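Priority: low. Protein: TetR family transcriptional regulator. Input follows.
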Amino acid sequence: MGATSAEPREARAETGLRERKKARMRESLLDAGLRLFHERGYQATTTEEIAACAGVSQRTFFRYFASKDDIVLEAVEGVDEYLYGALRARPADEPPFTALRNAMHEHWGYLDRESLHIQGSAMGVITGNPELIDLNTRYCRSRQRRLAEVIGERTGTDPDTDPRPGVLAAVFLSVLTSAHQSWCGSGSRDTDELAGAIHDQLALVPEVVGADWGAPASAS
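Result:
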C-alpha cells in the first residue's frame, strides 16, 4: 500500500515540475519578444529571433505561441487578470462601480513595476504599429467582454441578455484610456502619476453621469 500511495504523489510532483518549466519557458519567450520589439521594432523581429533570444528553437516557440501577435496579446491580457481577480474578491455588497474603483486601487498596489513595464511595452507595440490595428481591436473587445463577464458574476446578471455589465465595462475602460492619454500627454513617465490620473478620472464618473451640469452656455 505504501508504494502504491507514493506513486500518485511522485506523479503529481513530476507534473508540477513540468508545468513550472513550461511557465518559465513561456515567460522567457514573452520577455524576449517584448525586448526585441522594443529594440528592433515589431515588423523587423521574427519568431526565429525571439526563439534564439530565449535560447530555444523556432519549433519550440510555436509550441507556446501561434504567432508573434500572441506575444503582445498575452502580455496585456496577463496583467489584466490581476484586475479581474481583485474585482472578484471585493465584498458582495459593494455597488458595481464602487467595486471596480476599489479593485483598480488594489490591482495597482498589487502590480510590481515589472508588470507595469510589461503591459506598457506591449501596449506601446500595439499603438505604435498601425498594422496592428486589428490586433488592438481584438484586444479591446476581449478585454471589455472579460470584464463584463466578471461584473456579471458579481451581480448575478448575464452580459449576453443584460446590457448593463457591458455598458459599465465600456465606461470603466474608456476612463482608463482617457487617464492614460492625459498622462502620456503630460510627458510624465512616473507610474504613480498615472495611478493618480486614473483615480481622479474614476472619481469624476458619478458626477459626470448622474449630476445636472447646469444650463448650456448661451450662444454668442
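The chain is about 75% helix and 0% strand. The longest helix spans residues 2-40.
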